Amino acid sequence: MVQYSRRQFMQVTGSTLAGSSLALMGFSPTNALAEVRQYKLAATTVTRQTCTYCSVGCGVLMYSLGDGSKNTRLSIMHIEGDPDHPVNRGTLCPKGAGLLDFIHSPNRLQFPEYRAPGSNEWKRLSWDDALTRISKLLKDDRDANFVEKTEDGLTVNRWITTGMLAASASSNEAGYVTHKVARSWGLLALDNQARV
Ligand code: SF4
User: Fold this and answer.
1) Paired sense of beta strands 155-166 and 187-192, if any
2) Is the dihedral of CA 142, 138, 188, 179 positive or negative?
3) Residue 99 CA, ligand 1 centroid: distance in Å
4) Residues 21-37: pLDDT tens digits?
5) Which residues sit with their C-beta closer than 6 Å to ligand 1?
6) Do 148 and 155 contact (CB within 8 A), yes or no?
7) pLDDT digits (tens, 9 = 90+) for 53-102
8) Measuring from atom 4 of ligand 1, which residue has the nearest CA?
């Protein structure tokens, strides 16, 4: 006769009871195992992007749900490494693997904000107002500080009182165009967070 400890007895009788109850309710493990598992990304839209965190610039695939109809907004529900991306070949470090939390964080900055000199309050701006303000300040500063020639007559065409930091989520091509535009202004202080 097989001897059971009290713990083994509870495990055996518990699993037998659960199995027979499920069978009585019509659940068959054979049917369940034969069921084709639904692919959770089947109805999603995929968008290629670059991880926003660090200068490695790994490629990511972002999957969003929503049919794109009027008055609906797509919502990102899954992110994974892009297997076709030359930098990471589908891999992501723990920070990149946690991008979904970053995207849905209530603390994430999603709109331009402005804090006036001496104020401790940030005010939301429209994108139009923000871009107009940035353009105007850039032009004013360039008009006042652009240096065409040094004192000894050497042509330099430089503007060193403003700098620019380009975002890591821009593509190689966007980084290239940003570089060309900034250099055409005479801007020397330029960096791009990702090494794209
Ligand atoms: S996944 Fe990690 S290594 Fe790659 S860009 Fe993001 S933070 Fe950097």
Assistant:
1) parallel
2) negative
3) 10
4) 555 566 666 766 777 77
5) 51, 53-54, 56-58, 88, 92-93, 95-96
6) yes
7) 888 889 999 999 876 677 778 899 999 999 999 999 999 999 999 999 99
8) 58
